[in-house]
Amino acid sequence: MTGGTVTAVSSNGEYSFTKPNRPVITLLAGLGVAGDVHAGVTVKHRSRMAQDPTRPNLRQVHLIHEELFQELAAKGFTVRPGDLGENITTRGIDLLGLPTGTLLRMGAEAVLEVTGLRNPCRQIDAFQDGLLKEVVGRDGTGAVVRRAGIMAVVAVGGPVRPGDTVTVELPDRPHRPLERV
């Protein structure tokens, strides 16, 4: 088991690209972040709802590693926690390297189950021109590389605050790499 720290929590009750930081968010088992527009048993992202509103919501909670913001700053972009619509910003965890089904224990109670990679959209370029190509690219083999965070569902509810520890529990092997959800 490895771990890290929650550096910020964010939520928004209205559809908007960014989410304001909060002193605490409450995770609700099987739903997501209390009061957040993306909380629910079925999909809540507009593009997903247009395709099939009955699909299960595998994108209840969006997490981004704070280290990404530092990488982007070195390339001239200013991105702060909540700016890319994430609910939880972490430090010290290789979120993108986690396998599907990883459990993230946050604070005293909350547990998230990692479902996959965030598939960033063109709204990122509307936020800051050129940012999309920094968070989605291709590797040497031509495979798409998504770096805009991961998605999870809430297995056990509870409050999450900046400063909370995050404990990573990997699933049994064989590990399945994260795919776009």
Secondary-structure blueprint:
Layout: E1 2-10, E2 21-22, E3 25-28, E4 32-33, H1 46-51, E5 61-65, H2 66-74, E6 88-91, E7 103-106, E8 110-117, H3 123-127, H4 132-135, E9 136-138, E10 144-146, E11 150-156, E12 158-160, E13 165-169
Parallel strand pairs: 5-6
Antiparallel strand pairs: 1-2, 1-6, 1-13, 3-4, 3-12, 5-11, 7-8, 7-13, 8-11, 9-10
Description:
The structure is a single chain. The chain has 181 residues and is α+β, with helices and mostly antiparallel strands. It has one domain (2-169): M1 Pyruvate Kinase, Domain 3 (Beta Barrel), CATH 2.40.33.20. The chain is built from four helices and 13 strands. The chain has a seven-stranded mixed beta barrel. A three-stranded antiparallel sheet has the order 4-3-12, with no helix packed on it. It has a two-stranded antiparallel sheet with strand order 9-10. The chain starts with a strand and ends in a 12-residue tail after the last strand. InterPro entries: MoCF_Sase_C (IPR005302), MOSC_domain (IPR052716), Pyrv_Knase-like_insert_dom_sf (IPR011037). It comes from Streptomyces lavendulocolor.
Summarize the structure.
With 181 residues, the protein is an alpha+beta fold. The protein is built from four helices and 13 strands.
Low-pLDDT runs of 5+ residues are none
Strand order of the largest sheet: 1-6-5-11-8-7-13
Looking at this structure, what is the CATH superfamily?
A: PK beta-barrel domain-like
- Through-space gap between termini: 25 Å
Number of strands: 13
On the 0-100 scale, what is the average pLDDT? 94
- Return the structural class: alpha+beta
In quaternary terms, these chains amount to single chain
> How much helix, percentage-wise, in residues?
10-25%
Strand content: 25-35%
- The name of the CATH topology is M1 Pyruvate Kinase, Domain 3
Rg value: 15 Å
Please count the helical segments.
Answer: 4
Count of the domains = 1
Describe the biggest sheet?
Answer: 7 strands, mixed, barrel
- CATH class, named Mainly Beta
Shape by Cα distribution: globular
Order of secondary-structure elements: EEEEHEHEEEHHEEEEE
| CATH architecture descriptor | Beta Barrel
